[in-house]
Amino acid sequence: MLCELHITNLALIEQLSLVFADGLSVLTGETGAGKSIILQAIHLLSGGKGASTWVRSGTDSTTIEALFEVGEDHQILEKLREQGFDADGTIVIKRVLSQNGRSRFYINGSPATAKITGELTENLFSVASQHDHQQLLAARYHLDFIDAVGGLWQQRADFSRQYDAWQQKKNEYDDLLRKEMEKEQRKDFLSFQVREIMDARLIPEEDGRLVMEKQRLKSADDLNRLGRKSYSLLYDVIDPLAQMRKNLVQMTELDASVASLSEEVAGLTFQLEEKLTGLRDYLDTITDNPQALETVMARLDILQQLKRKYGPELADVISYGSNAANELEELEALDIRLEKLEKELKKMEDELQAAAGKLSRERRKTAQELAVTIRNELLSLCLDRSLFEIKFSEGEPMLSSLGRTGADRPAFMFSANPGEPVKPIAQIASGGELSRLLLALKCLLARKDQVETVIFDEVDTGISGKAAESVARKIKELASHHQVICITHLAQIASCAHDHYRVSKYVSNDRTHTDIVLLDETQKVMELAGMLDGDSVTQQTLAYVTELINRNQ
User: Fold this and answer.
1) What is the model's pLDDT at position 130?
2) Whole-angstrom Cα distance, residue 390 to residue 146?
3) Nearest C-alpha neighbor of 260 from the set 250, 272, 252
4) Which of 16, 62, 196, 230 is close enough to 97 for a disulfide, judged by CB 3.0 to 4.6 Å?
5) What is the DSSP string of 137-163?
6) How many CA atoms within 13 Å lie on the side-chain side of 308?
7) Closest Cα partner for 356 from 139, 148, 155?
8) What is the mean predicted confidence (pLDDT) over 187-215?
9) 412 neighbors 426 (Cβ within 8 angstroms)
10) Residue 407 CA to chain centroid, in angstroms?
């Protein structure tokens, strides 16, 4: 349960520490006094979205800290230990919200994420606010109520994963089916491309070599002229060099120290003779061949066309042809793949429909029990002649009607007046009736889960008189086995409280402050009397309040 709540610099609150006991604690006060700030602190603590506007002006940050005590066998402790947090039956959650909008979360002194904190607080407390009235009116939330009461969230999550896998497989099948319909046209197109590329008999880097060959053929006359001139010049020096080589050989016979020089010169002259031979051979290859030039240019044109279509480089053309050939092979085998995939999809569809049917049967069973329980709850909330039903569509779930949550779209039906048929809640329920319906549902959910603290934010909207007394009794009943914290404007509910806090605001040093104090018995009587008669409290009012407290305590 929630034992302590400490708030620093949140909106109108400068410094506040509250100690809560088990049973029922109520917070009362004038509208605008700051009761909603307490609820906002709870919301921020549970990982809710925070804004810098909530940080008290003139301060750097808001700090909210809460201490919870749970039983040593509570499953939440094991979850905390698995995630590396210390857990011994006391859980401290802290959030720091800065002016720049950044937040930091801590669990038992260790940093935590908003996601982990939110999952943790879901198992520590439950909040019922006026916003939940709107959820009760929206049919899309009715399924959530049924799954929560029936403990079907895990089964629903398993179905969602199964549905996602089927949807992925169906998308794959639809894609193949589309390819099958376009197969012949695609095959013709790919066949033409593959044939065009294969007929070209492409060689890697061929285009670069052809460009060089083109340049050589176009420059044949210049190459021949320059080459022959160079050959003549080199030829003229070969004979003198040969004679010099012979002279050095003779010198070596006379003086051995010249041997090294003789060998080097001989090597150089031999190399020049080899280069002369190579130049002659090269000149033999140079021909003025216009036909060869046309052939090279024609080949380059073919390669350029292919690069424009499949390029930009020749390597890209070769790669494109290879990929097109592979796709062509896949299209040839498309019938086999499609047949296999169709069998897999049919099996998944059968399993999905079976899972949807099982989930639907569990929900209908839960809904029948829930409707009976709600009707019994409404009897104790002064709606003894009302009718409550949960309507489902008829028949087994069809594949076309399935979604991630299954095939069910239940609707809460209600009639407050005898003789009137049940209709969707949104069409006929008043504010007071919605408040009591929501209270009945929250009481049921509190019994189902392990949440020990239930927080009500003005769920008494639209009720008074006898209905208010019935709501007070129901909240008091819930407080007998749960910790209940209730923000209320009704004296009937406040009179049931074990602890009564008054929320007020005052101005000090030109700053507005919110203050919360725990009332003693005398102050409690005066607060309840003020809730009933405002500033016109009489002795009769005080007597009635005293009787009300005695009766409800």
Assistant:
1) 60
2) 10
3) 252
4) 62
5) H-GGGHHHHHHHHHT-HHHHHHHHHHH
6) 6
7) 155
8) 86
9) no
10) 24
Write down all domains in the chain, each with its CATH number in brackets.
1-124+451-518 (3.40.50.300), 185-332 (no CATH), 521-553 (no CATH)
**Helices in 51-113 by DSSP H: which ranges?**
75-82
What predicted TM-score, i.e. pTM, was given to this entire model? 0.63
CA distance 490 to 509: 33
Residues 491-523 pLDDT 10s: 888 999 999 999 988 888 888 888 899 999 999
At 462 the three-state DSSP class reads coil
Dihedral sign computed on CA atoms, order 169, 173, 178, 184? positive
Residue pointed to by tokens 């520590």: 124
Residue 521 structure tokens: 């018995």
pLDDT digit string (tens) for 345-402?
A: 999 999 999 999 999 999 999 999 999 988 888 888 888 788 889 999 877 778 888 9
Token pair recorded at residue 423: 């209709």
Interatomic CA distance for residues 134 and 437, integer angstroms: 12
Q: Long-range contact list for 187-194, CB < 8 A, 24+ apart?
A: 187/328, 187/331, 187/332, 190/324, 190/325, 190/327, 190/328, 190/331, 191/328, 193/310, 193/320, 193/321, 193/324, 194/321, 194/324, 194/325, 194/328
Tokens of 362: 């569990």
